[in-house]
Specification:
- Belongs to the acyl-CoA dehydrogenase family.
- With 640 residues, the chain is α+β, with helices and mostly antiparallel strands.
- 53% of the residues lie in helices and 9% in strands.
């Protein structure tokens, strides 16, 4: 990160190639020339962003950023580059979710197309992008929501070939004007999967046979656009197909491949949510700090009140943490392969944790900016609305938490701490005094880390375990490569086979940062809890209980990637200490929540309290971070 917070008026986008720099600069210049007054007026009057789409068409912006190299017809600037896509998502979030959303659902609409073996559909999509068209993702339905097994989009085979589609879709962004809508449905002559049974047992390949993805045109006469289901500039459509003709050339995926295409599309698209949140928080922070630093109450600047000082320092730390995590997550996304699927965990956390951190930032800044944040000349109300929506898009927080928990055992124990699981076989470990539990946990963890690699040379299963978690170092990835793997992710199953490298060396490398050291103590205590008092069979079906546990687990990879990026960037250690001051407090609060769960066992109650710590307080460090945050007052204001 060349600067801590994104400043449109000084950012040079130096990390990117010349054409990417030019386009990103053109986007910023378009928004700044258009001005804040027009931006807010259009938001208030719910004006469809036609002028924005004219700009996109004129600059061939979406065509350049969203056309994979394989479909670029030799254009050297066209590629699917997660690094620059993330930057553009951040810029759109900075200026308003209307612009981010049109871009986001275009990405989702393209996902099933670019994953398809349908060369004709891909060629058509590339041409439509060049013409400035937008796309849509027709998956959700009003009655079924995320239960795609139960889709009521019925596709009837026709006697003379082809199909006829009839059914309704709901919550479909860009569904008013999309030239190609990727629609999920099922054949009328094939069985439907019982979604309740699908949760407890995997359906067979034959069970999936009738499901498919096809493309539809929103301007076709039998594509019936009913309404916009939200009060906003964006268009979230409810539409219906009434005997819509579907040719063989319109079919993108059949059978289980259609499900994989849906899940893998969301894997690509949901990554952008965190970057939209970052942009919204950065713009909001500039407004909040400008107001608070220049407002005098009772003879003092608002930024001098103790509660405001804490809110500002924590908000600033949270935004920096969001950016550090997200920058590093880009590298894992771009370096992903069939052999390295760690991105699936980091991607879920990008969508879930970064957006929720953004929501917390906006809530805290609202207490700083107070009534000024509701005035009609402020960007802040736009951000407030957006930040309550982002965590709930592309799979709810609970859905992404459930996905993240699938990785917990492998991340926390395999292979580095395979021996620590022995703790659960030690009599009394679950209810031992805190000091004794820590000692046993530490000893087992140390021995497993030191001895297991040696055993791996002679014990074949253990050797294979270590080999499966050995990866080449993940470099910083802002090169001009095409991220073609994202459109050949393959089956969305097999998550239990994904292994992670030992996360502790990263934390140990920052032990000189006081609150990183405290946080590491908490995480090691979490290992002890998971080993000695693992969730029962009943708890593994209890989403409420698992969510509390997931809050603790997902904090660990979130912190890991922050530290990895901090090492790359040379992040100021005072700022890092403030970030982990926040983490220690949050981790302790989540441990108490787990302790208080009515379904927690007595062993879990006891071990949960082992996670509670007090952060290291350093007034001078706090003051330095606060001064850095306050220095951003007056740095940026959007052109009028």
């Amino acid at each position: 990160m060349s600067q801590v917070l994104f400043n449109p008026k000084s950012c040079d986008f130096a990390q990117f190639d010349p054409e990417t720099r030019r386009l990103l600069r053109a986007v910023v210049d378009w928004f700044e020339a258009r001005g804040k007054r027009r931006l807010l007026q259009d938001d208030k009057e719910q004006v469809w962003p036609a002028d924005f789409l004219d700009f996109v068409k004129r600059e061939r912006l979406f065509a350049t950023f969203l056309t994979p190299a394989a479909e670029a017809d030799g254009d050297p600037n066209k590629r699917w580059d997660t690094g620059r896509n993330a930057m553009l998502s951040q810029i759109f979030g900075f200026y308003g979710m209307t612009y981010w959303y049109v871009w986001q659902v275009t990405i989702l609409g393209l996902g099933p197309i670019w994953q398809s073996g349908n060369a004709e559909a891909k060629k058509k999509a590339a041409a439509q992008l060049d013409s400035g068209e937008i796309f849509a993702f027709g998956l959700s339905e009003k009655e079924h929501g995320a239960d795609v097994y139960s889709t009521d989009m019925i596709v009837d085979p026709q006697p003379d070939g082809g199909y006829s589609a009839t059914g309704a879709k709901h919550y479909i962004g860009n569904g008013n004007l999309a030239s190609m809508v990727s629609v999920f449905g099922r054949r009328s002559d094939k069985p439907i999967i019982d979604s309740a049974k699908a949760l407890t047992g995997k359906p067979t390949e034959a069970d999936y046979e009738g499901y498919l993805f096809f493309v539809a045109d929103s301007q076709h006469p039998v594509y019936k656009l009913h309404r916009n289901v939200v009060n906003s500039q964006i268009y979230v459509a409810a539409f219906e197909l009434d005997n819509y003709p579907v040719a063989e050339a319109d079919i993108l995926h059949r059978g289980e491949d259609a499900f994989h295409a849906a899940m893998n599309t969301v894997n690509v698209g949901k990554f952008n949510l965190g970057f939209g949140a970052i942009g919204a928080c950065e713009h909001s922070f500039y407004e909040a700090i400008d107001h608070a630093e220049n407002r005098i109450l009772f003879g003092h600047k608002v930024t001098e009140f103790p509660q405001v000082r804490s809110l500002i320092a924590d908000s600033y730390a949270r935004i920096v943490a969001m950016k550090l995590y997200s920058e590093r997550a880009i590298d894992y996304m771009r370096s992903a392969s069939p052999q390295d699927r760690r991105y699936l965990l980091f991607n879920a956390i990008e969508k879930m944790s970064v957006t929720r951190q953004g929501q917390r930032v906006i809530e805290d800044l609202a207490d700083v900016i107070a009534a000024r944040g509701f005035e009609n000349d402020m960007y802040f109300p736009v951000a407030m609305t957006a930040m309550f929506g982002l965590p709930r898009l592309e799979g709810t927080v609970h859905v992404n938490m459930a996905l993240s928990l699938k990785f917990m055992a492998n991340y926390m124990f395999h292979p580095a701490d395979a021996g620590l699981a022995a703790l659960q076989s030690i009599p009394g470990a679950a209810v031992a005094p805190t000091g004794a539990a820590r000692a046993v946990t530490g000893a087992l963890s140390w021995s497993s880390r030191k001895l297991a690699p040696r055993l791996g040379t002679v014990v074949k299963p253990l050797g294979a375990e270590f080999a499966s978690a050995t990866y080449a170092p993940v470099p910083t990835r802002r090169d001009t490569a095409d991220d073609e793997f994202l459109f050949r992710q393959g089956p969305s199953s097999g998550l239990g086979r994904i292994r992670f490298e030992d996360w502790r060396p990263v934390f140990e490398g920052f032990r000189d940062v006081p609150n990183v050291a405290v946080f590491l103590e908490q995480v090691l205590a979490l290992q002890g809890l998971l080993a000695a008092a693992a969730p029962t069979a009943a708890q593994q079906k209890d989403v409420d209980f698992l969510f509390a546990l997931g809050e603790l687990f997902t904090a660990v990879p979130y912190a890991q990637l922050i530290l990895e990026q901090a090492r790359i960037d040379g992040t100021d250690k005072d700022v890092l200490d403030q970030i982990f001051d926040v983490f220690v407090r949050t981790f302790s609060a989540n441990a108490v929540t787990l302790h208080n769960k009515p379904t927690a066992t007595s062993a879990q109650e006891r071990r949960a309290l082992d996670l509670v710590r007090r952060p290291v307080v350093d007034e001078r460090r706090f003051a330095r971070v606060l001064d850095e945050a306050r220095s951003l007052a007056g740095v940026y204001e959007m052109n009028a």
